[in-house]
UniProtKB/TrEMBL annotation:
Residues 1-22 form the signal peptide. It holds the Pfam family VasI. Keywords: Signal. This is DUF3450 family protein. The lineage of its organism: Bacteria, Pseudomonadati, Pseudomonadota, Alphaproteobacteria, Acetobacterales. The keyword Iron does not apply. Coiled coil: none annotated. Residues 196-205 have a biased composition (Basic and acidic residues). Residues 171-212 are annotated as: Disordered. Residues 178-188 have a biased composition (Low complexity).
Amino acid sequence: MNRFIPSILLAGFLSLPLAAWSQAPGSPGPTVGTELSDTFAADLALVRTQIAEAERDLTSAPGGLLGDLTRVRIGVYRLTEALLEHRAAVAATAVSVPGVLTAPDPARIARAEAEVAAARERVAAAMAQASQSGGMIGILALTTLATERQALALAELAAVSARQGFALAPPASGGGSTTQPAASAPTADIPGTSEADDRAPDAPRSRALPAAERRTLQSLGYSVEDDWAFLSSRSRMDDTPQAHGRTQALEDFYTNRDARALLVACVEGETRLYVDVQKYLLTDYQRRTVRVTYRIDQRAPVTVNWGTSTSGRATGLWGRDAIPLIRALLDGEELLLRVVEQNNQQHQMTFSLKGFRQAAQAVAEACRWSLQAPAPASGQQPRPAGAQRR
């Protein structure tokens, strides 16, 4: 289905009334559309280079979600190429195209080129992340990279349209647009959470992996259980058993931004439970911790301090500190979690726990501990799950 989207867009563009492609009656002399811009040759060469690169990517990953994303990317570039070829044909006939071709607007060009620059930065960051990742994290990183490349293709389509003077949306007749501004999304119902941080708070609170992504993961040996994907493997360094499980924030599933994720893992004998917030966290300088409040279903909220990863983008529990909270999550349906940085910036996210037990079981088996909590020693006060040992 995705591969037909660019063709549909092009068909819609070319189906504009013939009057839009011809000289308006009584209009004076040559107008917009009779000459090619100075950037035409460079734009056409860029688009054809991008098509060739995308087709090479498709050859290396023809199936699954990665293949689908790459096909859409190729389709967008093919659409851009077709528009440019149409533009050359219009110039060759020396016919103006009022309503479809307009004089290039410097402000529009600047905005579009800024979007392209930002998209290229995101692609570069995604490429760096993919080159440093392996296993399940590597597959998800490659998916992110393919998505960012698709976004870059759309940004370059907009930039080419701006430079060549394409008015893909014909101007509305009459006294201006009747489009109403979109209503701003309501803030979350937990006080103190910034509206900007809570992405799509009204998104449905049920999430299953898309069918294409599920097939891709399963073809690579991953198990998918409800909202969690997990993989058991062995360390390349010492052959010890390993396991990784992951789900993404429910708020982020319906956006195109990098998804925040909850991860559970056993890596070379170390148990880990952590949250990747997709940004650098400002921590307590001396202890490198952030304040975390979590709530499992309708249980009482718990506030603890968690350490951060060496990258500074994740916070969680490592080693035996992670085990009590993993056990506490086993019978839950949903985890609500808030991370508060040293500057009081807050990050709130919700994670489904459907399928978590199977991921946790794989981690427990790899790190050789039991999901069943041992009985506390006589007179010993249990620590809250999620607390770090001093």
